[in-house]
């Protein structure tokens, strides 16, 4: 992680290229993104990008996955109420960020007849959900939630109202949106609505 | 409503043009839609379309509004459990229909840098939610839900998980998805989570 790594080497370059990719996506969208523009923006040579990523889609998938998994903190406060509120507020902050806007534009572009994003990109949301599952597991261990609670179903119930407002009704999403989503998901979980059947 | 209405006249033409508009949107997307193609598909002359709709966006907004407000039945069974389940199942059926796919592609196209849909189009979802509000009002009158329940918030909680799966995680949406969404929304409503503050 030397800050004197020569151009084209080291984790600094990877971070710069991924950040440039997200910025390009946010400004010009998925279909218009080119490795040339990303390289220029990151201040590296095109070959430096191709040395790490086989193609454009691999670069985009890596950049979006990186944004999704690093830009939303996974809380561990010891209380499921706090953790769910923290997860929801983190998602709200991310949805409003340039990185979040870039990810959402790519993940939705398939539905508009634009160039079809690779499956790897479409799996980013599911990966994002997976990284949140331990929050539910810890709550079950603490006896805060029913043993059979399906963590993925609970997390989806938590985030769905936030994405719905941000993408469908285009309402402003705020901490109040996040807190309401957390209350509803938690109420459902305590009522056993997310318990695995069978 | 005469079935012998001459070409270019009567409600049959309006219905044919709106249906052709939805079909064109579903196949080619918002940006590519032209009045010429719609007219050809509907079997009418372009001037027949312009006689009723000032421009392309007015036609699209009318077609989508028509699809959204007519293709999803608003149940009135006398039971909020039944009504919410019916609303959710109707939405699932619509999301999977060609009309639903067309509407969603247009409403999401703005986030992908494609031609920006007119506000009228973006209001379609809110209009759709409005048409569902009486279901909640009737339940409050029957004493099934808290008096202060915010009908719009309840309806949004009902539909959010369905749109989330259909558009974000791209999971299949089924009647089971609809029933789970109805259970969660109803549990939250009975717990007073949607009561207007103040």
Describe the structure using short key phrases:
Arc Repressor Mutant, subunit A, homodimer, Tetracycline Repressor, domain 2, mainly alpha, disordered N terminus, elongated
What would you note in describing this structure?
The structure is a homodimer of 198-residue chains. The first copy, chain A, has ten helices and no strands. The longest helix of chain A has 19 residues, at 10-28. By secondary structure, chain A is mainly alpha-helical. The model of chain A is unreliable at 1-8 (pLDDT under 50). Chain A has two domains: 11-64, Homeodomain-like (Arc Repressor Mutant, subunit A, Orthogonal Bundle), CATH 1.10.10; 73-190, Tetracycline Repressor, domain 2.
Summarize the structure.
Two copies of one chain form a homodimer. Chain A is mainly α and 198 residues long.
Per DSSP, the total helix count of chain A is 10
Overall spatial form of chain A: elongated
Q: Overall pLDDT of chain A, averaged?
A: 85
Helix content of chain A: 55-70%
Could you describe the largest sheet of chain A, including whether it forms a barrel?
A: none
Instruction: Return the structural class of chain A.
Output: mainly alpha
Question: What quaternary form is this?
Answer: homodimer
Helices and strands of chain A, in N-to-C order?
Answer: HHHHHHHHHH
Strand content of chain A: under 5%
Looking at CATH, which topology of the largest domain in chain A would you report?
Tetracycline Repressor, domain 2
CATH homologous superfamily annotation of the largest domain in chain A = Tetracycline Repressor, domain 2
Separation of termini of chain A?
49 Å
Q: Please report the two chains with the greatest interface, counting residues with C-beta closer than 8 angstroms to the partner's C-beta.
A: A-B, 38 and 40 residues
Radius of gyration of chain A: 19 Å
């Amino acid at each position: 992680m030397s800050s004197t790594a020569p151009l084209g080497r080291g984790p600094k370059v990877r971070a710069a290229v991924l950040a440039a990719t997200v910025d390009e996506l946010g400004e010009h969208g998925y279909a218009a993104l080119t490795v040339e523009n990303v390289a220029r923006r990151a201040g590296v040579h095109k070959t430096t990008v191709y040395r790490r990523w086989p193609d454009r889609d691999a670069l985009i998938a890596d950049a979006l996955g990186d944004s999704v998994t690093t830009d939303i903190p996974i809380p561990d406060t010891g209380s499921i109420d706090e953790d769910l509120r923290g997860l929801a507020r983190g998602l709200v902050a991310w949805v409003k960020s340039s990185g979040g806007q870039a990810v959402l534009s790519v993940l939705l572009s398939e539905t508009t007849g634009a160039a079809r994003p690779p499956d790897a990109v479409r799996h980013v949301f599911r990966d994002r959900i997976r990284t949140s599952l331990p929050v539910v597991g810890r709550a079950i261990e603490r006896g805060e939630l029913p043993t059979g609670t399906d963590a993925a179903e609970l997390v989806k119930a938590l985030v769905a109202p936030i994405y719905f407002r941000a993408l469908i009704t285009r309402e402003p999403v705020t901490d109040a949106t996040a807190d309401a989503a957390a209350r509803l998901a938690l109420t459902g979980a305590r009522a056993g609505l997310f318990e695995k059947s069978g």
